[in-house]
Specification:
single chain; Ubiquitin Conjugating Enzyme; Rossmann fold; 3 domains; seven-stranded mixed barrel; 19 helices; binds zinc ion
Length: about 575
């Protein structure tokens, strides 16, 4: 950081502060109490209603590129006031919006005004709701919060029993056993052995305030005393699992969204039976004796689809989470499409590809050199399942025709089939098979033109056309976007029939998005009939590689000019198509 900016900033700030009566510059021993975070600071009395409370303005070595912080002195204990961090530093609402390297005086003024309002609110009690609004920040600071939960549970719904798996470092919780086992198997290794425990998820009407955090099991009884169902779930948990550690999840609505808090209860010690033969103590006495046991808090990391795919604000999550997509061809185009579909939250992806990954694939494929020589479909499924353990992935490392012969239900049970195989032989037969068959879902074909200078995504529904309607008998588009006069664009490699198309990951990424976008439109019901969408690459790429816009495309759709855009091409089946054509 340029020192001159810091020095000038501090000088300006001190000139501004000089207008306040009785201000003083903090000395090194004052600053030391902040653990070396700040390099300069000033204190002023008399700004807040309570004359005993002084405000401090503190800057660090990044100032003025980082905003000053405001602290109160003397510092109250953490969790006794809202918006209060360690050493009395305030967490102000305006802080995030106030970073100006130039308006040092007005920014400082706004921060001080906000701090004064906050501190005055502490004394009037008006700011207690902030404890609820920012529950997570306070819960994570609670000194008894030493555990960690990972939750896959739906955020809504009533109090209920859910499934928990206690790992060494954390507890994973899900609404049902199948979801939990699938997540554990994806996240760790397939067939991980998971011993599950039923634990209560209890709804409480609002987030807890720090004064309500339960230190003991008795505190928890008291917290739930007005909810007899919840109390009975807790008592059941204690009695059934008396010799085990056990978890509990609290769920609550808040003004800023839903939240969870985890709690861990210890196993009962032998002494709890004192005076009784084992098994002869009444439940009432057990609960009473267990009441003195301490409770620990657990921070809850949400890994449920609603949170992962849109922080509870994506209305499409549920629909997409219930869909199965079959993707044929996990090459450079297909692997990118698979990744986008996983990010979208498609519930189940089935990947089919007969080939292994070569190192020269890796600059365009989502898999890297660490996956070389491994089967693309299996490896892609394996890696995506670790990245998105709440989704399901299945792989078949064989040609689609063999896969279909073995189990046609893989094709007929999917909600959508995508082919990014890029082979006319494989795709023409797929198109012929699925055309006009009520057995199959819609099929999308995605492919690239030379150099990835254009890309096509075409969806066929039932009897509304087939691939041959828009291609010639060799699978070439009847109306291509680009034309490549002179030498061919294919390059040779020293192997039997070895040719490849050079193109880069940048150009490729547009076509991956094109296909994934059409998938979303179909699964969400926005496209309900056969459709053809085209990515027209940038003209500079075309010119660099000596290509040009195809005259037939210009006649039909107009010149793409500089390109770089997506286009919806009106789709019409060809009545003279040798596969699907029929008289009108
Ligand atoms: Zn046709």
């Amino acid at each position: 950081m340029p020192e001159s900016h810091y020095a000038r900033g501090v000088e300006r700030l001190e000139s501004f502060i000089a207008q306040f009566p009785e201000w003083r510059r903090l000395i090194p021993s004052d600053l030391n109490s902040y653990g070396g975070r700040f390099t300069a600071g000033w204190e002023f009395p008399g700004l807040c209603d309570d004359p005993a409370v002084h405000l401090r303005i503190l800057v660090d070595a990044e100032f003025p590129f980082r905003s000053p912080r405001i602290a109160v002195f003397p510092p109250p204990a953490v969790l006794t006031r809202p918006n209060l961090e360690e050493q009395g530093i305030l967490c102000l609402l305006v802080e995030g919006a106030l970073t100006s390297t130039e308006r040092i005086e007005s920014v400082s003024m706004e921060l001080l005004a906000d701090a004064r309002d906050l501190v005055n609110g502490w004394h009037s009690g008006a700011s207690l709701e902030r404890f609820e609004d920012e529950f997570q920040s306070y819960w994570n600071r609670w000194q008894r919060n030493t555990e960690k939960f990972i939750s896959l549970c739906a955020i809504d719904g009533p109090s209920r029993w859910v499934c928990a798996f206690h790992e060494r470092n954390f507890t994973i919780v899900a609404d049902d056993e199948k979801t939990l086992k699938s997540w554990v198997s994806n996240y760790f290794t397939p067939n991980s052995k998971a011993t599950l425990q039923s634990i209560p998820l209890i709804r409480v009407p609002r987030p807890l305030r720090p004064s309500e955090y339960p230190n003991s099991v008795s505190d928890l009884y008291a917290l739930l005393r007005s909810d007899t169902d919840a109390l009975s779930m807790l008592q059941n948990l204690v009695c059934v699992n008396r010799d085990k550690r056990k978890g509990l999840l609290l769920a609550f609505p808040g003004r800023r969204g839903h939240g969870f808090a985890g709690l861990m209860l210890p196993s009962a010690k032998k002494e709890i039976d004192y005076g009784f033969r084992k098994g002869h103590m009444s439940q009432h006495i057990l609960l009473q004796r267990y009441g003195v046991y301490p409770v620990r808090g657990a921070s809850v990391i949400r890994c449920d689809p609603s949170w992962v795919h849109g922080r509870d604000h994506n209305p499409d999550v549920t629909i997409l989470g219930n869909k199965t997509v079959l993707l044929l061809g996990v090459g450079s185009l297909g692997s990118g499409v698979a990744e986008l579909l996983a990010k979208m939250g498609i519930g189940k992806l089935v990947l089919v590809d007969p080939e292994a990954l070569s190192t020269e694939n890796t600059s365009r494929h989502t898999l890297g050199v660490r996956s070389m020589s491994r089967m693309k479909a299996a490896e892609q499924a394996n890696i995506l399942s670790k990245r998105f353990p709440h989704l399901q992935f299945e792989s078949h490392c064989e040609r689609w025709e063999l896969c279909y012969k073995k189990d046609r239900s893989i094709f007929t049970s999917a909600d959508l089939i995508i082919s990014t195989i890029g082979s006319w032989s494989a795709e023409s037969s797929l198109s012929a098979l699925t055309y006009n068959s009520k057995e199959f879902p819609p099929v999308i074909f995605g492919w690239l033109e030379e150099q990835a200078a254009a890309a096509h995504a075409v969806a066929f529904f039932g009897e509304e056309g087939c691939l041959r309607c828009i291609t010639d008998d060799m699978g070439r588009p009847r109306v291509p976007v680009t034309k490549w006069p002179g030498v061919g664009t294919q390059k040779m490699v020293p192997m039997c029939g070895g040719v490849f198309q050079p193109y880069g990951a940048n150009e490729l990424s547009y076509s991956q998005t094109l296909v994934a976008d059409l998938v979303a439109d179909i699964l969400l019901g926005r496209v309900t009939s056969s459709a053809h969408q085209v990515w027209i690459g940038q003209k500079k790429l075309l010119e660099r590689e000596n290509g040009e816009w195809h005259p037939d495309w210009i006649v039909r759709h107009g010149s793409p000019e500089n390109g770089g855009r997506m286009m919806i091409v009106p789709f019409k089946n060809d009545v003279s198509c040798p596969i699907c054509g029929r008289p009108l």
